[in-house]
């Protein structure tokens, strides 16, 4: 690149600093010094290297950019404004209620693929995007800008390991090593060798920039992107607050905007060398057609027989294969549990669309989220209890409005002898709390397969809870299971109470209802397979016919699961809701013993019904 181009990029970097300072001062909050440290890196990427259509951020072959250090959002917004996507005046609306330029990036903005700001998650999402490019035969590259502080997160190294194993040479991580964290210096300061050795150990090609503000050096390193078979990490030694004499490399400025007087002083220092990016020629992406995102019109039929004993976890694997044969958008991921979740069925049938994530659940969710941004429909599975360690990633996927599908198997005490560390007993509460989530809990093979179909067709984050024990098929193959629905399985005039259950305890509720019927006690039984959204009207109507009495039964802790969902939805309806759930720390034992021990088997349900009616 000629000297005049280098000088132009230096000027653009200063203009990005000015925008970042002005915006955060106008907002009265933000992270201007974190923006300043990465200004040259972003200027080089957006105006000297990346291939993208600045008027169409979602062009299917644009190079992708993920700001993992999401607190530097004003810098990202400034780059897109300078690229001409929207007027630079909009930057002064940063962090206001009317603006989509939020404190940390979210996909409300067309140039943001995934929400960031909970540090350590951007690289995993970038891995998913790079995998999608490989799957689709596209030549776009994915760039992830990280801060050195977030390198302490284990999720970063899960992603680094995965990228190295898959030799994703279309993935470029850039670490802004500015030395200063929020409250003190980072663990390794400016020691680039520590970071270099660690990335090399995970199979990455490493380039170091001793001066991360030297644009000529930055561009020289970027010119080697794509060489070799490894992912590339660029470690750039930078200074927080760079470019402003009274901020540069000064501790105590993290997350603090400048006062109006300080901002005027800083901008006066930057302005003589600042240049607009208007008119800069940005390399165009290679033309490609948009991916087909249309779901199939119909799926192959089911062929179960009433009474067949099939675990819902196995039906999940069968469904993935059946639906995946008709829908090439579907990909599957698992965390070294595929022979228990039965995702192995999909892996054997479609090995190119299956990704073994090993025992790294955070990264599994991050990669799945990244795949979803590029038009894939990712199903990620593991034991329900292990998804708890990925919860922050799931939470951020909700904020990203990701089209993510999660399957948690081995839920509840019904798994048996493995004991409490393996029993998912918090997952319904956890998943219900995620923004925009759908939470589903089938009781048999038919409902499982039909709900996997619904998950495929529904755009958004869905969670499917599956069970370890084999349960009998109770539904016909043509039965429909819409999200937000429920099934009334027992109902007669004169019923005295409504039982609401799902999954394993639905079968226990049916046994209890039959036993109570023999005693002359009529019981309505509802399969609440859709826990969020709940079939509130159907359940309320049933309760009103049974004296406004409901008993919920669940293989889950009492807090936040099915019982709380029902009680919460019907709180203003005059309906009395009693909950049967696991109320103490469980222990190992046989499944049926444990259901009885913790008061959620048929006998316990019948006892509770009698007690309620005798009060």
Task: Jot down its keywords.
21 helices; single chain; Rossmann fold; 5-stranded parallel β-sheet; 7-stranded mixed β-sheet; 615 residues; alpha/beta
Produce a short descriptive summary:
Helices cover 37% and strands 15% of the residues. The chain is of the alpha/beta class and 615 residues long.
Distance between the termini: 85 Å
CATH topology of the largest domain: Rossmann fold
CATH superfamily of the largest domain: Thiamin diphosphate (ThDP)-binding fold, Pyr/PP domains
Poorly predicted residue ranges:
none
Level-2 CATH architecture of the largest domain: 3-Layer(aba) Sandwich
Class from secondary-structure proportions: alpha/beta
Structure in words:
The chain is an alpha/beta fold. The chain has three domains: 3-273, Rossmann fold (3-Layer(aba) Sandwich); 309-472, 3-Layer(aba) Sandwich (Rossmann fold), CATH 3.40.50; 487-614, Rossmann fold. 37% of the residues lie in helices and 15% in strands. The chain is built from 21 helices and 19 strands. It has helices at residues 3-27, 32-37, 39-48, 73-82, 122-136, 154-165, 192-201, 215-222, 260-270, 312-326, 338-341, 344-349, 361-373, 391-399, 427-432, 445-457, 504-518, 536-544, 562-569, 591-597, 602-614; strands at 64-67, 142-147, 171-177, 205-209, 232-237, 309-311, 330-334, 354-356, 377-383, 405-409, 438-440, 462-465, 470-472, 487-490, 497-501, 523-527, 530-532, 549-557, 576-582. The strands form four sheets. The chain has a seven-stranded mixed β-sheet with strand order 8-7-9-10-12-11-17, sandwiched between helices. Strands 1-2-3-5-4 form a five-stranded parallel β-sheet, sandwiched between helices. Strands 14-16-15-18-19 form a five-stranded mixed β-sheet, sandwiched between helices. Helix 6 packs across helix 13 (361-373) and helix 13 runs parallel beside helix 14 (391-399). The longest helix has 25 residues, at 3-27. It is elongated, with a radius of gyration of 27 Å. The mean pLDDT is 97.
């Amino acid at each position: 690149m000629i000297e005049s181009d280098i000088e132009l990029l230096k000027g653009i970097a200063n203009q990005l600093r000015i925008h970042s300072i002005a915006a955060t001062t106008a907002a009265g909050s933000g992270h201007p010094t974190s923006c300043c440290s990465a200004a040259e890196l972003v200027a080089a990427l957006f105006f000297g290297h990346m291939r993208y259509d600045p008027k169409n951020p979602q062009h299917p072959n644009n190079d992708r950019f993920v700001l993992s250090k999401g607190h530097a959002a004003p810098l990202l917004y400034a780059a897109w404004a300078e690229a001409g996507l929207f007027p630079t005046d909009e930057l002064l609306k940063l962090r206001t209620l009317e603006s989509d330029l939020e404190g940390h990036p979210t996909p409300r903005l067309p140039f943001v693929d995934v929400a960031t700001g909970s540090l350590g998650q951007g690289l995993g999402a970038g891995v998913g995007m790079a995998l999608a490019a490989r799957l689709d035969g596209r030549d776009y590259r994915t760039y992830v800008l990280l801060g050195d502080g977030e390198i302490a997160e284990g999720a970063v190294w899960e992603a680094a390991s995965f990228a190295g194993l898959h030799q994703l040479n279309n993935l470029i991580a850039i670490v802004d090593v500015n030395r200063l964290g929020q409250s003190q210096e980072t663990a390794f300061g400016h020691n680039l060798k520590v970071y270099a050795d660690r990335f090399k150990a995970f199979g990455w090609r490493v380039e170091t920039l001793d001066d991360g503000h030297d644009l000529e050096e930055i561009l020289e390193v970027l010119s080697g992107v794509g060489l070799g078979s490894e992912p590339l990490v660029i470690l750039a030694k930078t200074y927080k607050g760079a470019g402003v004499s009274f901020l540069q490399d000064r501790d105590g400025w993290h997350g603090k905007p400048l006062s109006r007087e300080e901002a005027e002083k800083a901008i006066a220092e930057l302005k003589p060398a600042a240049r607009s990016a208007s008119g800069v020629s940005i390399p165009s992406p290679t033309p490609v057609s948009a991916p087909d995102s249309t779901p199939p019109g119909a799926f192959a039929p089911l062929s179960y027989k009433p009474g067949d004993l099939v675990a819902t976890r196995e039906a999940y694997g069968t469904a993935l294969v059946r639906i995946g044969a008709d829908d090439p958008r579907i990909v599957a991921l698992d965390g070294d549990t595929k022979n228990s979740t039965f995702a192995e069925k999909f892996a054997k049938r479609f090995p190119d669309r299956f990704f073994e994530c090993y025992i790294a659940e955070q990264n599994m969710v991050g990669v799945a989220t990244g795949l979803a941004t590029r038009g894939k429909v990712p199903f990620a599975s593991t034991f329900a209890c292990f998804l708890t360690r990925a919860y922050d990633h799931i939470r951020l996927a909700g904020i990203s409005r990701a089209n993510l599908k999660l399957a948690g198997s081995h839920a509840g005490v019904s798994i048996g002898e493995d004991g409490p560390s393996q029993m998912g007993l918090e997952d319904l509460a956890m998943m219900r709390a995620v923004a925009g989530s759908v939470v589903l809990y089938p009781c048999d093979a038919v409902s499982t397969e039909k709900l996997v179909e619904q998950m495929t067709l529904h755009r958004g984050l869905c969670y499917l809870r599956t069970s370890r024990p084999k349960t009998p098929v109770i539904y016909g193959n043509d039965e429909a299971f819409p999200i937000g629905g429920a099934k009334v399985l027992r109902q007669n005039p004169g019923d005295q109470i409504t039982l609401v259950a799902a999954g394993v305890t639905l079968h226990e509720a049916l046994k209890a209802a039959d036993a109570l019927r023999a005693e002359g006690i009529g019981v309505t039984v509802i399969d609440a397979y859709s826990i969020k959204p709940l079939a509130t009207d159907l359940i309320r109507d049933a309760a009103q016919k049974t004296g406004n009495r409901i008993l919920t039964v669940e293989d889950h802790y009492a807090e936040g699961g099915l019982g709380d969902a029902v009680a919460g939805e019907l709180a203003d309806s005059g309906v009395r809701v009693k909950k049967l759930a696991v109320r103490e720390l469980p222990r190992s034992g046989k499944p049926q013993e444990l259901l009885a021990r913790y008061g959620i088997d048929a006998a316990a349900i019948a006892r509770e019904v009698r007690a309620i009616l005798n009060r």
